[in-house]
Amino acid sequence: MANPLLGTLIHAIGGVAASTCYVPYQKVKKWSWDSYWLVQASFAWFIFPFLIGFLTVPNLMDVFRDASSDVLINATLLGAIYGFGGMCFGFAIRHIGYSLTYTISIGISAILGTIVPLIMHGELSQKFNGPGGYTIFFGMGLALLGIIACGVAGYRKEKDLKKSNANSAEPLTFNMKKGLTLTLIAGVLSAVFGISLEVGAPVAEIAGTYGAGNFEGNANLILSTGGAFITNFIWFTVVGIKKGTLKEIIDVKSIGKKHFYLNLGMSILSGALWYGQFFFYGIGHVQMGAYKFASWVLHMSMLIFFSYIVGIVMKEWKQVSRRTNLTLIIALITLVISFIIMAYGSKLGTDISSSL
Question: Are 156 and 323 in contact (CB under 8 A)?
Fold first, then answer.
């Protein structure tokens, strides 16, 4: 039996996992970013999805056998496209930090992840003019304003850091133009991941008939993450060969056992946290019952909230002016309000639809 309150709490757990998944990189030493990314991607998008999928979905191979080949192929291809977004997201964090990367990219993802599935099913006009439609689209417009305000806060942060030079490390790496470009790409392609899950939904339904229950989403998640893994594995393997960094992953002697196992452990932890966000998303989505339409927006809003908490902990905004902090706070509040409005609009629509 569905329990929307429990579903919301489960989405919150997924939000915590997602907002902290790249924090372990801070402890990685004597490995290049490429080596770290290749290892964490292997666990996030290949090892954990398949391992947990086999453990939680009965007769998993039969589920894939029964599914349409078009669904399998299209969901995997969309996951592969998202794979480039995952790369951009990781690089963006290095240029503009956790708070801005998560806020802007996930804000865009929340909007597109809501609109595109409606277009795919030919329901955009119907939903816009139906119960809750105007409320949802008003919330989307408000979210766009919040995203723009985040960009303004980012440029002000860059200016503040250059003036004060109080943090010797950050001014050398903070690059709003490059980071914003990467973040916008990551946001659009993050929505593609949501679309991939939507395309693969029939696979989850088949898994449900085999008795997967709350874990039915682990079946189609394998397709989406598998596609992302293929893209990243090819890209970073080629890059690793060209740069000569690929050997870092197996060369224990050069960096020492202590650093090697620490790096490996932190990379696996990153992968586990990234996978965890959609593991809990799948469970929370099932629990939302009639409110499933709000799942993506709800999950994305959780990511933004907790990513800002991470940004505070990481002291990303410690050296900026009050004006810059105020701008970011206003932007975040605007985004949170927009997500609440969109979720409320979704609730109106699903409530009325379920009563018909």
Answer: yes
